[in-house]
Amino acid sequence: MKGLSREFSDILVRYAALLILSVGGLWIFYFIFTPLTVYPVFFLFNYFFGATLEGTTVYVRSIPIELIKACIAGSAYYLLLIFNLSTPAIKITQRLRMIFFSFLIFLVINIIRIVVLATMYISGSSIFDITHLLTWYAGSVILVVGIWFYQVRIYRLKDIPFYSDLRFLYKHSILKRN
User: Fold this and answer.
1) Does 97 reside within a domain?
2) Which residues cross the membrane (predicted)?
3) How many whole angstroms separate alpha carbon 106 and alpha carbon 80?
4) How many domains does the chain have?
5) Residue 176 located in a structural domain
6) Contacts of 22 (CB under 8 A, 6+ apart)
7) How far apart are CA 20 and CA 24, in angstroms?
8) Which helix (H) or strand (E) is 60 found in, with range?
9) 168/162 Cα distance (integer angstroms)
């Protein structure tokens, strides 16, 4: 019974953390990842083009590149966290390692994406608009799911986000017929 109680409390803590972190429009993700995204983008452009930075806008050759919330992709980090915290049976140290590495992978790829797109914009590439829209709408989702599948494979996860928790709750509920 003690193990059962621990599993119920584990579910409660994981989903409470998800709810708490979503309060206020995911501000915590933007607070953390805005500088972690803006400064590397600025440093790269400054190294190659002599850029300037004002707030979250990088100026390259007097062309403004504003890094808005959609560029920072706070909701993508939250989706990675949702996948992680909605999956049971992960030890806390492994869970923290997975969160750190998934965020790091996404951050690096997102910075590369921003630099490539901004370079296309600065150079007046004719395919900038379609490339920007594709990476914005589909690219981020595919990337997040890809990172999650990569982690499932690397960490040999057997449980399914949400489903495994729901199956456990149903199995131990009064709704289950004997």
Assistant:
1) yes
2) 12-33, 67-86, 98-122, 134-152
3) 9
4) 1
5) no
6) 78
7) 9
8) strand 57-60
9) 10
Query: Containing domain of residue 149, as a range?
Result: 2-171
Return the pLDDT at 1: 54
- Which residues are bridge partners to 176 per DSSP? none
Q: At what angle do helices 92-122 and 74-85 cross, to 10 degrees?
A: 160
Secondary structure of residue 85 in the 3-state scheme: helix
Complete DSSP assignment for 3-68: HHHHHHHHHHHHHHHHHHHHTTTTHHHHHHHHHHHHHHHHHHHHHHH--EEETTEEEETTEEEE--
Q: Evaluate whether residue 177 is within a structural domain.
A: no
Query: For strand 63-66 and strand 57-60, is the pairing parallel, antiparallel, or unpaired?
Result: antiparallel
DSSP code for 57: E
**CA count, 13 A, side-chain hemisphere, 65:** 26
Are 61 and 83 within 8 A, CB to CB? no
- Mean pLDDT by runs of 10 across the 178 residues of the chain is 81 94 90 98 97 98 96 96 96 97 98 97 95 88 96 95 91 76
Q: CB count, 10 Å around CB of 14? A: 17
CA–CA gap between residue 124 and residue 152 (Å, rounded): 40
Q: Which residues pair with 59 in a beta bridge?
A: 52, 64
- Answer whether residue 178 is part of any domain: no
Report the length, in residues, of the chain. 178
